[in-house]
Design goal:
The complex is a heterodimer of chains A (178) and B (247).
Chain A (H helix, E strand, L loop, with lengths): L2 H23 L2 H18 L9 H19 L27 H10 L2 H11 L5 H8 L3 H29 L10
Chain B lengths: L2 H8 L12 H12 L1 H22 L7 H12 L7 H25 L5 H14 L7 E2 L3 H10 L10 H4 L2 E10 L2 E10 L2 E9 L13 E5 L2 E8 L2 E8 L2 H5 L4
Antiparallel strand pairs in B: 1-2, 2-3, 3-4, 4-7, 5-6, 6-7
Helix pairs in contact in B: 1-2, 2-3
The chains are: A mainly alpha (178), B alpha+beta (247).
């Protein structure tokens, strides 16, 4: 791959990759490092990838693998029980007009990792459920299940944050001037 | 498909409509069109998804990240000569060199001339008992004398170490109209054969006085010129073993 092709690929993919990394790693520094590392691996191995149209999927897959590899060396996360999400949570609707991107990111980062990866890839609008299955190397049914339950968890967390924010806003008592 | 199942499927439907043609969603979408409650849920869900997408995509990327990636990418890229196409070219060049090298080696490799090949056949048939000596004696001097008396090729000079060996016999044959003689010796049960002919009868007039070693199958051969005669010493085994007779 030429230097120009590499630059073009970086320009197209580094922002969505960083956001995906940020949702996974929960820290801007770690997300930046993961994003850079992914492109560096690409730079050193891209010649082995015959089909340039698969570059995007390759980058996301590699970033996810890198994240999982790093996590294995850190504190082990408790096993996530994927079946415990409540169906009722699907009907919860946070008021999105009062929620900013930082809050969304925080809520997203609080999801358990298996949901977080699927939900982030979905919302970045980069990937269909089939693409997500390929990137994360999991079955399509698992993607659908995690999307369904992950969205429910996300809604619940956003509603929870919305309520917390509302409680912090103390109405200013209007002085009766009469 | 009930509403719960439809919700499960429609949660994977991207809010920008990219999945509208995907048959995986057709039943769930039809169900939503039929059921106003499900339709309402789906409309809300799409709105929620769009809002999340919008907010997530507005997350700022750290300044300088792009430049760091580009700079790091430059040093991470393999050297040009390590890239697959170059590797292929290098491999092809090595292969070509190997082929050319082996061809050169093959061309420059000492070969046996026709008379020598014929001599090996004669020796083989003697060793295998398929033909008989023309004259037999354990005294090599008698063999040389017999050859001379019969106007056959006889040696003018025999390697010193052969002189001390017991001889078995001699045989003559003609190759391309030229006379060739073979004297067979034995050393500790192993046979050594001295073949001789006139140098002027050979196409290769550039034979040197230093023995030229050639291995042909089980036969080790050493060929050299001495005056007007060309000699070939033959034995089964390695050239090193044969060389010991030439010291």
């Amino acid at each position: 791959m030429s230097a120009n092709d590499f630059k073009q690929l970086v320009d197209e993919q580094y922002a969505p990759l960083f956001r995906f990394a940020l949702a996974l790693a929960k820290s801007e520094a770690d997300a930046s490092d993961l994003t850079q590392q992914t492109f560096f691996i690409w730079a050193s191995k891209s010649d082995q990838l015959r089909d340039p149209s698969k570059a995007k999927a390759w980058l996301f897959t590699t970033l996810h693998r890198e994240f999982l590899n790093r996590r294995r060396h850190e504190v082990r996360f408790p096993q996530v029980e994927l079946d415990e999400a409540c169906v009722e949570e699907m009907s919860i609707s946070p008021n999105m007009s009062v929620i900013d991107s930082a809050t969304v990111l925080q809520a997203l980062s609080e999801l358990e990792e298996p949901y977080r990866a699927v939900i982030t890839l979905f919302y970045l609008e980069q990937f269909s459920y089939r693409d997500i299955a390929d990137v994360l190397e999991i079955p399509v049914g698992t993607v659908m299940s995690r999307l369904s339950r992950g969205k429910a968890q996300l809604r619940q967390r956003l509603v929870s944050k919305e309520e917390t924010t509302a409680r912090r806003i103390v109405p200013i008592a209007m002085e009766d001037r009469n | 498909m009930n509403n719960h199942e439809a919700q499960f499927v429609l949660n994977a439907y991207r809010p920008n409509g990219q999945d509208a043609a995907d048959p995986q969603f057709s039943d769930a979408l039809a169900q939503a069109r039929r059921d106003p409650m499900l339709q309402q849920w789906f409309t809300d869900s799409i709105a929620f998804d769009k809002a999340i997408t919008e907010k997530l995509c507005s997350v700022e990327v750290p300044a300088g990240l792009r430049e760091s990636i580009l700079a790091g990418g430059r040093v991470s890229r393999p050297a040009p000569w390590l890239r697959p196409l170059h590797k292929l070219a290098i491999a092809a060049a090595i292969l070509l060199c190997a082929i050319v090298g082996s061809l050169i080696h093959e061309i420059s490799k000492p070969r046996l001339a026709g008379w020598q090949t014929e001599a090996l056949d004669v020796i083989s048939s003697l060793v295998n008992g398929k033909s008989r000596f023309d004259f037999q004696s354990h005294d090599s001097a008698q063999l040389v004398a017999w050859l001379a008396d019969n106007h056959a090729m006889s040696p003018t000079k025999i390697p010193h170490r052969l002189m001390g060996l017991q001889s078995l016999g001699c045989k003559t044959f003609a190759w391309n109209g030229s006379d060739v003689s073979v004297i067979c010796f034995v050393n500790d049960g192993r046979e050594v054969h001295l073949v001789m002919t006139k140098a002027s009868a050979l196409a290769n007039r550039t034979l040197r006085s230093e023995p030229q070693m050639v291995q042909r199958g089980q036969w080790a051969t050493a060929t050299w010129r001495s005056g007007e005669m060309v000699y070939m010493l033959v034995s089964e085994g390695s050239p090193d073993e044969l060389r010991s007779y030439l010291l």
